[in-house]
Amino acid sequence: MIKTVNDSPLGRHSEYKSEYDASLLFPIPRAPKWEALTLAGDNLPFTGTDTWNGPELSWLNEKGKPVVMAGVFVLPCNSPNIIESKSFKLYLNSFNQSRFSSAAMVQDVMVRDLSAEAGAPVKVELFTLAELTTQGVYSAPGECIDDLDVEIDTYTLEADYLQADSDTVVTEALHSHLLKSNCPVTGQPDWGTLVIDYTGPKLDREGLLRYLCSFRQHQDFHEQCVERIFMDLKRLCHLQELTVYARYVRRGGLDINPWRSDCGRVDENSRLARQ
pLDDT by residue (tens digit) across 170-187? Predict the structure, then answer.
């Protein structure tokens, strides 16, 4: 039987296991969402990653002493599956009362388990809290469009707000902290900062802000929201080069940060103030 997101632990009461259990991970195929955007997994118009940051990792060393670290998990955007977020959190919590001889061993176990469920190699990095502190907090690049004095009256997705001036070609980065969408299963809000870095016809900023605010009642996962924004901008504004990414606010111990680009740029995982 083919499992769907409705079979996942998302939105259900779950027992939080404290002994390592890889079976807690629940993969969700990307293909149905790609098909909805008329995309094919073997010929995507972008490259990118989904970077998950988890600052709440803990396990026991061989003497039973707790170890606390932070983790970064990077899934390629063309992996057949994403990992359902609650199952990911349950999996990470299952390390809490399990003994491991070293952080390297934990890292190897996580690489093996996550890669198996994603269907593609997943990169895992573990950091001490001292190392995490040195990474600092960054500001979103480019100009913020949130102070534009526009009237907003549409909170369901409306791509037709997107417009561009074909007579004026620019290279610029814009960002907004007003991105909000909702989990398609639980209805819980997902808050994020959206960055658009592009070369092409100059985007109408008021229309762009209205478009981003129209996600406010939209239900979809983080990854699919970013891919939809990328495809809408390419389709309606005919941009020559485009990078779209979102830095989402942490929920339940993980933040998810999808990155999509058609010009080879890669995510530097720069943490923002709300993360």
Answer: 999 999 999 999 999 899
Angstrom CA distances, 185 to 3, 66, 193, 219, stand at: 14, 34, 22, 8
Cα 271 to Cα 256: distance, rounded to the nearest angstrom: 11
DSSP H helices, the chain, are: 31-36, 85-93, 103-118, 129-135, 205-213, 222-237
What residue has token string 């979102």? 246
- 3-state DSSP assignment of residue 13: coil
Closest C-alpha among 7, 74, 25 to residue 256:
74
Q: What is the largest CA-CA distance in the chain?
A: 68
Catalytic residues: 183, 190
Please report, for the chain, the start and end positions of each structural domain, with discontinuous segments joined by +: 5-135, 143-261
Which phi and psi (to 5°) does residue 128 adopt? Answer: -70, 165
Contacts of 157 (CB under 8 A, 6+ apart): 214, 215, 218, 228
CATH T-level topology, domain 5-135? GTP Cyclohydrolase I, domain 2 (3.30.1130)
Residue whose C-alpha is closest to residue 39's, from 78, 96, 11: 78
Q: Considering the entire predicted model, what is its pTM?
A: 0.93
